[in-house]
Amino acid sequence: MTTIMPYRDHHFAGVASLWAEAFPDDSSWNRPEVAIPEKMRFQPDLFFVALEADAVVGSVMAGYEGHRGWISRIAVLKAFRGRGLGRSLLDHAEARLAALGCIKVNLQVLASNAATAEFYARSGYAVEARISMSKRLGGR
């Protein structure tokens, strides 16, 4: 049986392994040793793991700044995909955001990641006519 719960420090190694499998070409600022401590500093209650017999098999980060919610870093181990776990993680994060008063959730998907875009489309997300822009601060 899979359980979704808030991330705790003892989940670090499991999340690091999961992200290494799910995001093998990740940017340095998204690596677990950078991203997880930052998330634990800000809205740690919006970082969730899926556990199967105490092993991390999935994760999702969410955020809310009072106007829009965000979903990021959703991942499921390859051996556990196709069981609805990604959808359960997404539903869990959305429910927590809604409980905070969030009425709209945004997310970003690499244009080359058609499978992930399709997953979100099946979950009710739609492409909006927007340009995604970013700026790295502080040399990270």
UniProtKB/TrEMBL annotation:
MF GO annotations: acyltransferase activity, transferring groups other than amino-acyl groups
Give every N-acetyltransferase domain span.
2-140
Q: Where are the transmembrane segments?
A: none
PROSITE patterns referenced in this protein's UniProt entry, alphabetically: GNAT
Keyword Transferase among record annotations: yes
Q: Which UniProt keywords apply?
A: Acyltransferase, Transferase
**Pfam families, per the entry:** Acetyltransf_1
**Secretion signal, residue range per the UniProt entry:** none
Is Acyltransferase one of the keywords? yes
Give the protein's recorded name. Answer: GNAT family acetyltransferase
Q: Which organism is it from?
A: Methylobacterium oryzihabitans
